[in-house]
């Protein structure tokens, strides 16, 4: 058996991150429609992330931002977005590459995407840790499909580690990549 030299997981994650970019482009152009708002959790250590030392001290590993009522200067680029937010009445500029995003969630729908390593993807408490008290446990299962990268030493290996969402939810859009995996 040959390894995955095409890197399907990476391609799928890139495609899904482009969904986030396209949504932010719409918001940049027209503002947030209706009750839509977003929770975006990202890795503060990722390449290209720019946040102040003060914020880095408060959020050394991961930070969750909310795009709802008060944000300014949203600037959406091909590989990252910039935004100004206020933290304790102090305006801050954040630069977030799409590759640094771990969770994107719109609770008004609900619709969300979760990215990360296979270990993080299988951590049942991870979603609640990123979005505490925002969504119910059932919504976590239905609204946040898990997309994970294989660790470098297991690349190309078969895996059943992806979380499988429960069926029967009419309110969430679920993308299940396991269907396309070789068993």
Helix and strand sequence? HEHEEEEEEHHHE
CATH homologous superfamily, by name? Answer: SspB-like
Q: Termini separation (Å)?
A: 12 Å
Q: Which band does the percent of strand residues land in? A: 25-35%
> What average pLDDT do the residues reach?
76
Kindly report the spatial arrangement of strands forming the biggest sheet: 2-1-6-7-8
How many distinct folded domains? 1
Q: From the alpha-carbon coordinates, what is the Rg to the nearest angstrom?
A: 17 Å
Q: Would you tell me which CATH topology applies?
A: SH3 type barrels
| Secondary structure tally, helices | 5
CATH architecture: Roll
Uncertain segments: 137-173
Task: Determine the fraction of residues in helical runs and give it as a percent range.
Answer: 10-25%
| CATH top level class name | Mainly Beta
Largest sheet: 5 strands, mixed
Helix and strand content put the structural class at alpha+beta
- The geometry reads as globular
Total strands: the figure is 8
Tell me what you see in this structure.
With 183 residues, the chain is an alpha+beta fold. It has one domain: Roll (SH3 type barrels). The chain is built from five helices and eight strands. The strands form two sheets. A five-stranded mixed β-sheet has the order 2-1-6-7-8. The protein has a three-stranded antiparallel β-sheet with strand order 3-4-5, with helices on one face. A hairpin with a 2-residue loop joins strand 4 (80-87) and strand 5 (90-97). The longest helix has 23 residues, at 8-30.
